[in-house]
Amino acid sequence: MALSLYGFASWSRLQGTKDDDWADRVSHLWTVGLLTFFAILVSTAQFVGDPIQCWCPAQFTGSYVSYTKNICWISNTYYIPMDDSIPINIQERHEKEISYYQWVPIIFLFQALMFKLPNLIWKMLNDSGGLNIDKIISLAESTQLGKPEDREKFIYQVAKYIDRWLKAHRQYHYNLLVRLRQRFANVFCFWFAKRDGKYLTGFYLFIKLLYVANVIFQFFILNFFLSMDYSVYGLEVIQSLIKTGEFKDSPRFPRVTLCDFEIRQLQNLQRYTVQCVLPINLFNEKIFIVLWFWYLLVAVITTFNYLSWLYHVLFGGNRYKYVKRFLKLGDNLSSKSDSKLAKKFANEYLRDDGVFVLKIVAKNSSDLVLNDLVNYLWMFFKDNPHVATAYEKKLRDAKMNGKHAISTLEMDPEELREINHKL
């Protein structure tokens, strides 16, 4: 049983799949873990300790004191500063009620679910793109620890699998409607079209947008649950530290509150107002300060990460720039014709989805693995007669015919010199 619990609580299980990048894990892994820890901490303080103490009238005995604490805990208290007089109007007291402290653990768990939800959607639906990204990343990552011959074999198999996937999701016809749809897909990044090479990329950008929207929405959720302007809470703390040089208690999380309750005595209702102390707010105040700054950090990280991905997807030239350096390391760009072929390799063979898979592999393995993977894909691309350029066909035909040089007036002089040089 202990071994089973250890296996369930292992870091690999908590970390989940590796089919995303580190910015996503800040939300669905680290933030969820932080919120779960705070939920356990506050729950322990509520149910194990004594979350409320009330100053009761002298005639109250032990059972009356216990009743007072329980009724004040479940029926909410209200905060009136010591320098202000208690309102006579009961409705004015209700308007100042503090109703969040009983529900703080549930609020934290609800927020943790919201931070995890985009990752759950991604894991459930990304396989519909026709590729098991997590399996590919696991295979690519395992090659770093294996034997050299096994490493080459595994990377070759991964590249072959990606090559088949890229070839399977292509347009069979190139009519006017297809061309118009491809142009629209180049502008509209959330275009979930498998045969246009945009499905995984568009879906992943949508998931990243959910991460950004979620962390911003969390501030509004806390504004609603806490019944206060939580969005500026951290700014007020910073301002207080600058002015006074010390951390002061916030009226947003009061420790001393008031509680009204009624006791029925025969046909009479006796109303009591007691003063209570909420030690739990000592924890809540510090926790919500930490969360405010953490949410701000997560918002900055997810926003800049999303904009970075959006920039690299919207500008097609970034696809060629990304694979160019790996092709150079493999000594596959020795001429201008090779550079032209490499652009076709990035824009027509890999497309956005292929480059996306390579980037996810790179973020979860190493540049050495990705270099071999890109160069294997380059080899498969050049061996495909349907995508080879006229330059490659002429060079291949000349070698097959045993020619040592060719001459024609229909070829570009620079291209002719390159072919003759290679022959």
UniProtKB/TrEMBL annotation:
Compartments in which it is found: Cell membrane
Key word Ribonucleoprotein present: no
Entries under Pfam families matching the protein: Innexin
Main location: membrane
Alphabetical keyword list: Cell membrane, Ion channel, Ion transport, Membrane, Transmembrane, Transmembrane helix, Transport
Keyword ATP-binding (UniProt): no
GO biological process: monoatomic ion transmembrane transport
Entry's Gene Ontology cellular component terms: gap junction; plasma membrane
Domain of life per record: Eukaryota
Transmembrane feature ranges: 28-48, 203-226, 292-315
Bilayer topology annotation: Multi-pass membrane protein
Function: Structural component of the gap junctions.
Family under the similarity heading: Belongs to the pannexin family.
Protein name (record): Innexin
Organism: Lymnaea stagnalis
Gene responsible for this protein: inx
